[in-house]
């Protein structure tokens, strides 16, 4: 096997995709989880079910609907095309949007659990000490939720790394643009290039394992403190 | 002045909380009542953590809630301190971080003077860099109280702060509460269902039951009220006296107390002369006699008294409550049979024999 012929591009695209997706996921995931943990609405089960959908839905089904949504005639794709002049399907941005939906439960779940464990008590204490709700969120709830944040980031990142079906449906497999690691592995196997398939799969396996190991190790060392 | 007006109405699944009253707060106002009587709801409404739909709350000249005019000041803008039953220290901060959390947000000037003063009063100097998870129950208690005090609240709310501590720890903490009161003079609303805490701390008592205020007033006046027996229980009904220690009787190992020109003897307590000592005399521990019987009985404390009132406040018809005047009121429970045998009537001059005196800080 010739190292010079090794194509790093799918790896770079995959890492970029996972990185950007995690940032987007945290921006949306924290408020959603916070709201879910503190709302008194009786429709909470409904929202919980909607968010958990990607856990059980075949990625192709999710990918199919996203493809339609993001496409030139879709509810999201059409206005975006009108504004920017380009469609979302088969682009990196489209992939990020798709991955965000796909990995949402992996981010919301740990955040929601953490916020629920922390509960309202420490926040009430902070309010009585003069902290506004925003202030109390950043200075009390967030430091207490650090472990949950970390778990959410790692799970969101790791889960996005390995996605296949949704990416294939929404992004296609355009080399250098939307061709990610898992699709590359599939292609290599299809063309019986087991050497490359081994290298990529082994690398992904080792990397994912290391990431999870780090998370569990840190979790053990810094348990969530709720007085 | 610290005149406090409150009108709250909250409906829960199993009970209705309904309060409408006015009180002048100073020192410790103890909210006393069985669990589920609405004491915590009361504190939560005052603090703004709970919003009664038609509520009204005013302290001094500040209105914190007036739903008729659409006023509701959020919790963080009310000048209150709140010591929660579960204390709720911030686990991500050390003791000093906890203490400075409110200080930073509420006080601007001289904050270091205040910080040092409160740390000294609460005895926290050696704990400042400690992690809040590594504190004993009593230490956590002092940190939580100090944290609230540092915001210089107009009103301090304390919700059964000692409920989780055993008797010995309680007795270690209570002096800190009293010292806090005498040095900082912040009015406190203190929720409790412990007789001992009520007796030791209360200046004013607010009796609650089933979401309503039954009565309020100086503790001496509330506890002497025979009609409140069903709320207060047989052991608390009686007379509260704030006495001064006169001297120690070394020969008989007695401590001599004085109030209203009367002298009382109690078994030796290590309190230096001049100090205040609050005592409690149960209505059941007062024996009435038409003659002084100091020479005939072993009772040490005999006070001349005049009967002011006889009341049939017991339900069983066996006993009656006799209110006496000894310069202040004194309550005695005797049997109806004795009342008739001795032919006791209001206006009679008799002698009250006190067979037992309890120190407020020894009542559990």
Structural features, described:
The complex is a heterodimer of chains A (227) and B (364). Helices cover 75% and strands 0% of the residues of chain A. By secondary structure, chain A is mainly alpha-helical. In chain A, helix 2 crosses helix 5 (92-118) and helix 5 (92-118) packs across helix 9 (165-171). The radius of gyration of chain A is 20 Å and the shape is globular. The model of chain A has no long low-confidence stretch (mean pLDDT 88). Chain B has 2 domains: 3-223, P-loop containing nucleotide triphosphate hydrolases (Rossmann fold, 3-Layer(aba) Sandwich); 239-362, RNA polymerase II/Efflux pump adaptor protein, barrel-sandwich hybrid domain (OB fold (Dihydrolipoamide Acetyltransferase, E2P)), CATH 2.40.50. Chain B has 9 helices and 21 strands. Chain B has helices at 39-47, 95-106, 111-121, 137-149, 167-184, 195-201, 219-223, 229-232, 336-342, and strands spanning 3-11, 16-24, 28-32, 56-59, 62-66, 71-72, 80-83, 155-159, 188-192, 204-209, 212-218, 238-249, 254-259, 262-267, 276-282, 286-289, 301-311, 319-325, 329-335, 349-354, 358-359. In chain B, the strands form 4 sheets. In chain B, strands 7-8-9-3-10-11 form a 6-stranded mixed sheet, sandwiched between helices. In chain B, strands 2-1-4-5-6 form a 5-stranded antiparallel sheet, with helices on one face. In chain B, a hairpin with a 2-residue loop joins strand 13 (254-259) and strand 14. In chain B, helix 4 runs parallel beside helix 5. Chain B is globular.
């Amino acid at each position: 096997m010739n190292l010079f012929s090794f194509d790093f591009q799918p790896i770079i695209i995959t890492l970029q995709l996972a990185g950007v997706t995690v940032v987007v996921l945290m921006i949306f995931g924290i408020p959603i989880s916070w709201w879910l943990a503190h709302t008194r609405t009786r429709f909470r089960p409904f929202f919980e079910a909607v968010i958990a959908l990607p856990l059980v839905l075949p990625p192709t089904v999710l990918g199919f609907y996203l493809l339609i949504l993001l496409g030139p005639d879709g509810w999201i794709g059409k206005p975006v095309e009108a504004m920017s002049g380009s469609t979302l399907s088969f682009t990196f941005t489209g992939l990020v949007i798709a991955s965000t939906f796909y990995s949402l439960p992996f981010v919301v779940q740990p955040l929601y659990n953490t916020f629920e464990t922390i509960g309202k008590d420490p926040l009430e204490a902070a309010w009585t000490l003069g902290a506004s709700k925003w202030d109390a969120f950043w200075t009390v709830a967030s430091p207490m939720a650090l472990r949950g944040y970390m778990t959410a980031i790692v799970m969101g990142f790791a889960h996005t790394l390995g996605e296949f079906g949704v990416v294939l449906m929404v992004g296609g497999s355009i080399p250098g643009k939307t061709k990610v690691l898992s699709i590359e592995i599939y292609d290599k196997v299809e063309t019986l290039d087991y050497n490359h398939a081994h290298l990529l799969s082994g690398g992904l396996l080792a990397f994912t394992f290391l990431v999870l190991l780090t998370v569990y190790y840190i979790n053990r060392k810094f348990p969530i403190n709720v007085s | 002045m610290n005149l406090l007006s409150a009108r709250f109405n909250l409906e829960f699944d199993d009970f209705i909380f309904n309060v409408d009253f006015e009180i002048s707060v100073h020192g410790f106002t103890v909210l006393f009542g069985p669990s589920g009587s609405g004491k915590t709801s009361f504190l939560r409404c005052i603090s703004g953590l709970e919003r009664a739909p038609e509520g009204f709350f005013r302290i001094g000249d500040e209105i914190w809630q007036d739903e008729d005019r659409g006023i509701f000041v959020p919790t963080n803008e009310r000048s209150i301190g709140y010591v929660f039953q579960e204390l709720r220290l911030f686990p991500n901060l050390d003791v000093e971080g906890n203490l400075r959390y409110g200080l930073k947000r509420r006080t601007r000037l001289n904050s270091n003077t205040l910080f040092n003063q409160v740390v000294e009063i609460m005895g926290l100097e050696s704990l400042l860099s400690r992690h809040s998870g590594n504190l004993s129950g009593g230490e956590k208690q002092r940190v939580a109280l100090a944290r609230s005090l540092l915001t210089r609240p107009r009103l301090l709310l304390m919700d059964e702060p000692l409920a989780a501590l055993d008797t010995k720890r309680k007795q270690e903490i209570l002096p800190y509460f009293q010292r806090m009161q005498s040095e900082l003079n912040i009015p406190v609303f203190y929720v409790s269902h412990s007789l001992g805490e009520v007796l030791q701390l209360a200046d004013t008592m607010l009796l609650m039951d089933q979401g309503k205020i039954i009565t309020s007033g100086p503790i001496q006046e509330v506890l002497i009220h025979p009609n409140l027996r069903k709320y207060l229980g047989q052991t608390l009904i009686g007379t509260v006296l704030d006495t001064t220690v006169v001297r120690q009787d070394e020969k008989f190992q007695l401590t001599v107390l004085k109030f209203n020109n009367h002298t009382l003897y109690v078994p030796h307590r290590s309190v230096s002369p001049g100090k205040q000592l609050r005592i409690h005399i149960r209505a059941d521990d007062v024996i009435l006699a038409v003659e002084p019987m100091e020479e005939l009985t072993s009772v040490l404390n005999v006070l001349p008294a005049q009967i002011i009132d006889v009341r049939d406040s017991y339900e069983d018809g066996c006993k009656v409550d006799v209110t006496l005047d000894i310069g202040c009121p004194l309550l005695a429970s005797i049997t109806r049979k004795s009342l008739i045998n001795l032919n006791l009537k209001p206006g009679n001059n008799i002698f009250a024999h006190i067979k037992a005196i309890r120190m407020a800080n020894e009542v559990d």
